Amino acid sequence: MKHFFQGKWITTAEFAPLKPINVFHKQLAPAAEQPDTEHQNRHVLFRKSFLLDERPESAKMFISADDHYKLWINGEFVAEGPAPAYHFRYGYNELDVAAFLKPGRNVIAVHTLYQGLVNRVWQSGDLRHGLILDLVADGKTVVQSDASFLTTLHTGFRATGTVGYSTQFLEEYDSGAPEVGFERPDFDDSAWTPSVPKADDDHVLVPQTSHSLVYERIAPTNIWKAPGIVRMDFGGVFVGYLQLTVHGRKGDQVTIRCGQELLDDGSVRFDLRANCRYEEQWILAEGDSRLDWFDYKSFRYAEILLPEGAEIVDAALLARHQPFEAKVGLRPEWRGDADLERIWELCLRSQKYGVQEVIQDCMEREKGFYLGDGCYTALANLILTGDDALTRKMIDDAFATSFITDTLVTCLDCSLMQEIAEYPMMLVYLVLWHYNLCGDKDYLAANYPKVVSLLEAYRREYEKDGLLRDLDKWCVVEWPKNFQQGYDIDIQEGKVCHPAHVSINSYYIAAVETANKIATVLGQKPYRDAAPLRQAFMDAFFIPSKHLFRDGEGTDHVSFLGNVFPFGLGVVDDKTFDEAVIALFREKGIDSLCIFAPFPMLQGLVRRGRFDLVREALATEGAWRRMLNEGATATFEGWGRDTKWNTSLFHLTLSYAAIFLADIDLPHLFQ
Predict the structure, then answer these.
(1) What pTM did the predictor assign?
(2) CA 411, CA 405: separation in Å to the nearest integer?
(3) What is the fold of 215-321?
(4) How many helices (H) and strands (E) does the chain have?
(5) Do 122 and 356 contact (CB within 8 A), yes or no?
(6) Helix, strand or coil for residue 53?
(7) What is the per-residue pLDDT across 7-23, written as a single tens digit (0 to 9) for each?
(8) Can you tell me whether residue 311 is helix, strand or coil?
């Protein structure tokens, strides 16, 4: 049930008069307005004291903030959020907080962040900041956000740079800042100022689809000590926060370095392969100081450089992730196969510790909610958990990007504008996969008009003589570039791809066929006849003498990569073609592909009942086993640490191996 807020959006005097900036535009079009760069990295605190006659039997907190919040009640941490979203369908969290309340005086404390960067994480740089909340106890609203909340800036966070693709700020944290401990009930907030209600706030609030995060405290598995330095290993790569308590003198400086691997000399590689330099400073207060990270990192190792006389009192990694419980197991016929069991466990661990409030891509460089390969990750999550909350959020939020362009964008719920041509086609498949797994016909019916609108937009903008051409979207085909196998079409990002080519047209035909399947399920007439598209495809790309397809118009280059798409996406029904592609598969191997093409290759093998070849592909020494042999505790952004120039060592896409390993009816899923 939707909650209707009595509270108002509140902010500071700095933000209250600012008007929102339109940060949205098509990727190759100029922006209508330039994003805000003046108001960045604002850590804004709010506090409210209130009285309760007795502890309520039930109490719900309804809360949201832009860009993000962390909530404490009576000094105890409760939750953080919300999940990234667009301002016109902005999520709020519903939290059960009865256990945190008590008779008498209670204190709500909230730490909010306006990051202000244009990136793949949040819709920011738009001058929208604020907090809204209602506390409902035993059916009555006892606290609501208004001018009675006190506010101030947290001066203990000083930006020292950014990491990744302007993904997050590196910061020097000062434990001696006057705001440290603001969450404690006895904290003195008498110098704070009243918050300011935002009278013309334009957020439209909806219940958040994805769940609130859960947390695990991970103790170090190994600790190495030397004069002035301590190194810790937490036993695997996680996503979360380093928790440290250090005893020292006021003004002492501690250097903290985090990484996903060690260098040959045993030190922590804090210059990550993914182009994030995880090195920050921490200024101690007198006595015991506690490190307070607001933003998370992806790391396994920590290296702490201590000043003379300082000593670590406590250390842990606080991992954050979505609730996760695997509801399916490995296919019975593959149980006992050591290689496949290891790959299965790798995928499960990646899904458990990698998925945050949204289906993320990599955990450090981008932290992005990507359509496309994210559809595969969402499908894996749905199959493994049986919970469709994250899949629905991906579908809903992707279709919501039609306000930017009716052919949709790539990065969801953020300020960075990117368009990849194949990704919206994958969304169409996800809509049907969701129905095949969940059987929710009402949800399918609600999405079918959106599918048709999307395909009609592609038809209007790009279809010419039955083929997609002149795409002002990046055609990624395969990634990274060194896995593109000489694909002989200019698919460079940032320019129009003029020729028709086999990859995007395979995706397109499959999306049209998928729309027809959805229409059949709903008892409606087919969306359109795909036969003319197939004929145009055959005429343009098929080489009869080779029983294979050329990469595109204007070339006779034939690649295994280019033929994977018509094979896997069901564009061609020809046994001679099937045999030719399988021969290339045996020659080249699944590890000659990388992120995008292995999925349709495996999908095509499933459709043809070739589970022997599915097993062969999954167990290939150069693919998932290579990750494991290189010490992976989470799936990589590629088959090995050095298969990409900026490899993320915690990247969720290739966890989709779990789909093909799981004990489910795969032919039904891909029918």
Answers:
(1) 0.97
(2) 13
(3) Jelly Rolls (2.60.120)
(4) 14, 27
(5) no
(6) coil
(7) 999 999 999 999 999 99
(8) strand
